[in-house]
Amino acid sequence: MRAVLVVNPEATSTSSAGRDVLAYALADATELELVETRYRGHAADTGSRATREDFDLVVVHGGDGTVNEVVNGMLRAEPARAEGRPSLSVIPGGSANVFAGALGIPRDPLEAAHRLLHAVEERRGRWLGLGRANGRWFTFNAGVGLDADVVAEVERLRDSGRRVTPWLYSRAAMACYLSSIHREPLLTVHIDDEDPVVGVHAAMISNADPWTYLGRRAVHTNPETSFDTGIGIFALRSMLPHAVSRHVVQMLRDRAKPHGKTLFRRANTGHLRVVCREPLRVQVDGDSLGELSTIDFESVPNALHVVE
Q1: Could you give the CA distance from residue 165 to residue 158 in angstroms, rounded to a whole number?
Q2: Which tens digits make up the pLDDT trace of 159-216?
Q3: Pick from 123, 146, 172: which residue ends a domain?
Q4: Which of 96, 154, 158, 194 sees the fewest Cβ atoms within 10 Å?
Q5: Is the Cβ–Cβ distance between 272 and 222 less than 8 Å?
Q6: Alpha carbon of 235 to those of 1, 148, 151, 240, 308: distances in Å?
Q7: What is the pTM of this model?
């Protein structure tokens, strides 16, 4: 089995010692190439090359942003063989590791590597459905408005030298919320043959549950959504404190399904469109896409094979 290990040395919980241990373990079971990312887009380029050059497996040791890059690279390239593209596996190395968590992969990198080696030996894997936002693939979530503002603010703080932690995310979320509380709603959501949903402040799109993590606490927007269903949407129709706090409490409950008059929610949807009266920020898998006015979200079944 030909494999490439993609390591983001700047990810929150990666280290040179951990990289060496993982590479040694994987090299014992595969014909391994090690790539450390050196520039923005390097992970995507490596994923694309792995598809073109007939690799069997791409292992990502990094955060959700690195995983997203690799997936987009793998799926944009034409495969070298009729059987299709390489499989993907993830060794958590970021701060949230939402995709790995949704797959049930242990947070500890050594435990995750041990599990991966058994999966490789047993040829164990499965197919996942993914989402796309204007053609950009995402594995677990996307968003328009508030959550994309939070992503952009965290990226700004990280670039200024701040360490990314759950506390930093919480602080950024509160600051973005307070700055948007009195804004008028700018979004309209279109789903299939339903009437357009107007008066929306923020839209969060999910391809898996949980939608994200607050530390180790799972955040649920659409508990019915999984890699085997269509995408889901969680759209806020009020930014008033009592409405938002109610939905936050619902999102943090393990089995509750968020609901209420100030919330629009759907699950298992194949396609939806979000239209903004003025360009708003958009994010996919915690990576900012900039400001857009119209975003088409779609669910693509059986898009990616993972070894887990």
Answers
A1: 10
A2: 898 888 888 888 999 999 999 999 999 999 999 889 999 999 999 999 999 988 877 7
A3: 123
A4: 194
A5: no
A6: 44, 13, 17, 14, 32
A7: 0.94
